[in-house]
């Protein structure tokens, strides 16, 4: 029997790219699946409707509307890319899937999106090196509540278990490259730095270098699709408390990236100097980039000792490495010049339902 998939944040960078990948797949299991996309605006409905899928204009904060959408469209799998920070949106979807399971008697699945910053010292992680095979739920529960991303991870895993929903958490790193969705094609992170550098005619870096985990958008999408395929194949894969997946393909140096961006932008006469300068203050950085000052240091300097295991055990095989990333800086600049229509920050992405 075919299964029905709902992608939230389907007009966004990651969600839209997942949607495009699924549509392009030739696998009979994907072809048999009915794909629905949840978006927020009528404009987004019109943009995605031409893809030949079921597009829902859906307010994920409306519990009743979410339940009706999941039940009426007989959704078995939800891929939630719309928000990592608003746990109530995930909870509404999980509750709806629980109702769907009671009606159908079939297993239902929830794939949640989190972020790697939460597993860094700068993001409040006190345990040092961390593998996605560790007891991450237990460790997250030991940390004082109040971080919305971490609280959402706990909520998803615990409530899914209570309601009989099989859950997975894909922990997304800094992601780069051109997306393939119909709407947002820009990496939120780098495009924000490039846009700000153009406005200030200067590329800035922070007083401390970071070495965060990262992955190309195509590799991140490949992990989501791999999990979906395993579900469709009815394979037994780690889920629930053991279902964290670090989507980390490689690392990079923030300072080196900012320097490459400075050189690429200077060559295009977009900035005055080919050297990255230190931000005069975190306050100035937060105001210029549009990030909350509270999260500025974590966003700008995080590293984290993450060790991905689960994704590779599934057969995930990232194609992009650090050298390829570093050599792509001019294309990242060009992408902003060609495609920039949205002025979203990382925090806006996490907070809203557009990803």
TrEMBL record:
Pfam families: Epimerase. One of its GO terms (cellular component) is cytoplasm. Residues 5-85 form the NAD-dependent epimerase/dehydratase domain. InterPro entries: Epimerase_deHydtase, NAD(P)-bd_dom_sf, NAD(P)-dependent_oxidoreduct. GO terms for molecular function: aldehyde dehydrogenase (NAD+) activity. SUPFAM superfamilies: NAD(P)-binding Rossmann-fold domains. This is NAD(P)-binding protein. It comes from Melanomma pulvis-pyrius CBS 109.77.
């Amino acid at each position: 029997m075919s299964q029905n998939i709902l992608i939230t944040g389907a007009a966004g960078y990651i969600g839209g790219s997942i949607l495009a990948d699924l549509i392009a797949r030739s696998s009979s299991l994907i072809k048999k699946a009915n794909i629905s996309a949840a978006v927020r605006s009528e404009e987004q409905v019109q943009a995605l409707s031409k893809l030949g899928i079921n597009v829902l204009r859906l307010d994920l904060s409306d519990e009743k509307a979410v339940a009706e959408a999941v039940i009426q469209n007989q959704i078995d799998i939800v891929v939630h890319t719309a928000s990592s920070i608003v746990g109530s949106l995930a909870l509404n979807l999980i509750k709806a899937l629980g109702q769907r399971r009671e009606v159908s008697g079939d297993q239902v699945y929830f794939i949640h999106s989190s972020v790697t910053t939460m597993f860094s010292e700068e993001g409040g992680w006190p345990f040092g090196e961390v593998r996605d095979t560790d007891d991450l739920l237990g460790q997250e529960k030991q940390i004082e509540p109040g971080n919305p991303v971490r609280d959402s991870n706990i909520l998803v895993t615990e409530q899914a278990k209570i309601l009989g929903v099989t859950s997975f958490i894909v922990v997304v790193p800094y992601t780069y490259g051109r997306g393939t969705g119909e709407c947002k094609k820009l990496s939120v992170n780098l495009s924000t730095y490039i846009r700000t550098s153009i406005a200030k005619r200067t590329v800035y870096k922070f007083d401390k270098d970071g070495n965060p985990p990262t992955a190309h958008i195509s590799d991140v999408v490949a992990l989501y699709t791999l999990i979906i395929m395993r579900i469709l194949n009815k394979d037994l894969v780690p889920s629930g408390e053991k279902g964290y997946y670090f989507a980390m393909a490689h690392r990079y140096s923030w300072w080196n990236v900012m320097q490459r961006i400075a050189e690429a932008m200077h060559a295009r006469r977009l900035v005055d100097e080919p050297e990255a300068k230190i931000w005069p203050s975190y306050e100035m950085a937060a105001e210029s980039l549009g990030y909350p000052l509270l999260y500025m240091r974590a966003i700008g300097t995080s590293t984290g000792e993450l060790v991905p295991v689960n994704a590779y055990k599934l057969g995930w095989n990232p194609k992009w490495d650090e050298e390829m990333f570093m050599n792509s800086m001019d294309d990242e600049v060009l992408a902003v010049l060609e495609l920039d229509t949205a002025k979203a920050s990382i925090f806006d992405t996490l907070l809203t339902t557009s990803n």
